Amino acid sequence: MTAVLQPPMIDPVVTAEAPAIAEARTGPALIKASIAFEGEQRGRTWLLFLSTLCVYGMFLAAVFFAEWWPAKVLAACLAGLVIVRIFIFYHDALHGAIFRKSRVGQWCMSAIGIHVLAVRSVWKETHDYHHQHNAQIATASIGSYPVLTTQQYRRATPAQRRAYRMARHPLTMAAGLLTVFMLGMVGSAFRRSPGRHWMGPVALVLQLGAFIALGVTLGWLNAVCMLLIPAVVAMAAGSYLFYAQHNFPSVQLHRRRDWNYVQAALTSSSLFEMGPVMHWLTGNIGFHHVHHLNHRIPFYRLKEAMRAMPELQAAGRTSWRIRDVRACLAQAIWDPDLGRMRTWKEARALVRDNPQASEVAA
Q1: DSSP class per residue in 155-192
Q2: Which domain holds residue 217?
Q3: Scanning 100, 201, 234, 353, which has the fewest C-beta atoms within 10 Å of its C-beta?
Q4: Residues 6+ apart with CB under 8 A from 27
Q5: Model confidence over 188-234: pLDDT tens digits?
Q6: Best CA proximity match to 347, nearest among 171, 172, 145, 153
Q7: Is residue 267 over pLDDT 80?
Q8: Is 79 within 8 Å of 54 (Cβ atoms)?
Q9: Exposure pattern of 272-293 as b/e (b: 16+ CB <10 Å)?
Q10: What is the SS3 assignment for 77?
Q11: Are the C-beta atoms of 330 and 336 separated by less than 8 Å?
């Protein structure tokens, strides 16, 4: 990624030794210790939010003023990456981590939800469920990417396997604007509950109207580079980030009877290692296990919490390195007997060795 941005206050992944404690805390004790980092610094929240909007506006202005079309496309891609950070403000606000008592801040967040096609009613419904049931085998697919067990995959029909593969396919993530947001956040949610999620289609119409208005007034190339390309880049990056945060080689899933919240946070949510620019662009969401431990910690305090709590140092890790991306994308189905995810190669071998099992749908 380019290093054109000079982000404030965020460094690379923690490398300094965390302070030692007499005995590792678990369960409620660990959650209680994390409460110290919940406090929102309201001035800092607004400073970071407004400065982020300024960076976003700078790239949109670059799109408008650039005369060479490749420069417009580059600025559009960078604007898309900044949208990922803008989304994190929205994400944290709906968790109650920031803008808790700010009516203006909440209005701004609602506007962001419309802009990214993830309106409040839909995001709260699916994402809150995901946090409350993170890594439970029976419900891991709700609010996240679908996960089948080895038994379910063996029993699935060929058509069901193809649909499952497509749901977890890299192209589905790359087309996140269409697949995850337009079809999922808008279409599926509206079909499920039109009365509750009517704002999703409204957001889609507003986005289409904005695109047409920009095309007519500023030209279609500017419209594509100011709205469409940033949205495609942001949704693709966000779709993969969310996938990799819960589908990495050392991830652990649990039966409901064996599940507990803290264990799921620490073993089923990754630490995504990035450089300072990417940590800035992704709003520190790479410290995802800390976020799942306590979602009321503002994104700008996640690293601080991790540094102060030794129990958070051993999370499963991934990164933007090609080998780590390939390893995450290779994760296919959960094997309860082995206690790990099997790869697509292993999944195909399971079906090849048990062809009769596909007669019954999962």
Answers
A1: HS-HHHHHHHHHHT-HHHHHTHIIIIIIIIIIIIHHHH
A2: 38-359
A3: 353
A4: 260, 262
A5: 999 999 999 999 999 999 999 999 999 999 999 999 999 999 999 99
A6: 153
A7: yes
A8: no
A9: bbbbbbbbbbbbbbbbbbbbbb
A10: helix
A11: no
Q: Of 86, 91, 5, 95, which is closest to residue 48 (Cα–Cα)?
A: 86
Please tell me the distance from the alpha carbon of residue 125 to that of residue 189, in angstroms, as a whole number.
Answer: 10
Distance CA 286, CA 180 (A): 20
> Which residue stretches of 35-175 are H helix?
42-65, 69-94, 103-115, 120-132, 150-155, 158-167, 170-174
Specify the number of domains making up the chain: 1
With residue 317 as reference, give the H or E element that holds it. Answer: strand 317-319
* Enclosing H/E stretch for 264: helix 261-267
Burial 87-97 (b: 16+ CB within 10 A, else e): bbbbbbbbbeb
The phi-psi region of residue 360 (left if phi > 0; otherwise alpha if psi is between -120 and 50; otherwise beta) is beta
Tokens 């067990």, residue?
149
In whole angstroms, give the CA distance from residue 273 to residue 13: 6
What pLDDT sits at residue 138? 77
Distance in angstroms (rounded) separating the CA atoms of residues 188 and 180 = 10
Pairwise CA distance, residues 238 & 152, whole Å: 28
> Is residue 148 within 8 Å of 237, Cβ to Cβ?
no
Q: In the predicted model, is pLDDT for residue 306 greater than 90?
A: yes
98 falls within a domain: yes
Do 272 and 279 touch, CB atoms closer than 8 A? Answer: no
Does 16 fall in a domain?
no
Strands 331-335 and 317-319: unpaired
pTM, two decimals, is: 0.88
**Residue 327 resides in a domain:** yes
pLDDT at 257: 86
